[in-house]
Amino acid sequence: MAEDRKKHFERPTTARPPSLLNITIWTVFVGLVAGFSGYLFARSLLPVGDIDYLSFLGGQRDVKINIEQPFTDLAYKYENSVAGIYKSAGSIIVEGKSVFSSEQFLGSAVVVTSDGWLMTTDQVVSADKVLRQVVLGDRIYEITDTKQDPFSGAVFVKIDASFLQPVDFQLTDSLKAGERLFANVDASNSLKHSFYTSFLTNSHYVLDTYLSSDKLDHYIAISGDLPSKVEAAPYFNTDGDLIGLAYTKDKEVVLLPSEYLKQSVKHLLNDTERPSLGVYYLDLENNSGFVRKGVILYHPTLRAVNLNSPAYEAGLKAGDQIVSINNDVISANNSLSAVIQNYRAGDKIILKVSREGIEQDVEVEL
Fold it and tell me: What is the CATH architecture assignment of 80-159?
């Protein structure tokens, strides 16, 4: 029977087993090389988008965030709240439905009530722009009624629709310069809308030196991409609230502030008229560059106090300085027109008036 032979001796060697530290370093190195190679390979195949996760400029890590995504989501949300108003004359009929061209586009409108009231401006709906139709979603509507707010330039149009999605309004006193905005505009020959972005550059933009208590006294200034058909284009903030409607004033595109537009909707729903004071004035703070509260009743060519107006009946005169209304101090960001519009026609208010350096209280019935 053969014996099993076992080795009792192995030749010594100088080779040492790899240490755990060496294995770890080698593994990390291979992983980094593989990861970076994969990153370069992916960038060579895919186009560079808005998100760049790694940049070696100056050895700095540069991470960029796609800030347009929230606007895109909101744009889709409000597609059924933003309509297009078109000329109906000359539209092509395909399978019983009208097809509009970009030349027939008059401007935009937004839904303000669920039962069919939409808001646009007098630059879209006016006497010289007749035969209008509204495209909302995938349906075409006829305009059955219109109402106008001369104070702001807003116009309301009624369509035979229900269960619509109204827009939300943002009070402009909380707006800050530099905020990102987006516009949502109906596109002809498409069920989708066009999308534009912009920045808010001035939340209280005054275009005129002499202002009227019975007209809109300030606008919102914006910059950035503007639609070619800008009339009444609605601009929203990142929360999806309406900031204003685009309006061309002195060849400049500004926004009608949502603060005044919301008041227009209130008067529409309550079937009431805006209050009137009937004066022209000079805003001391906006025109002097200093903190000077109040306004002076003055106009170089027109009557500072309109005949038979509430201000005239109360005895106000050119040169009077209105300091406050019901203890609400008049300032650049709390203008005379804005304060007056917080009341209703027929309300009685107390004006603190400075005449020849002497202050007095004057009661006015709007």
Answer: Beta Barrel (2.40)
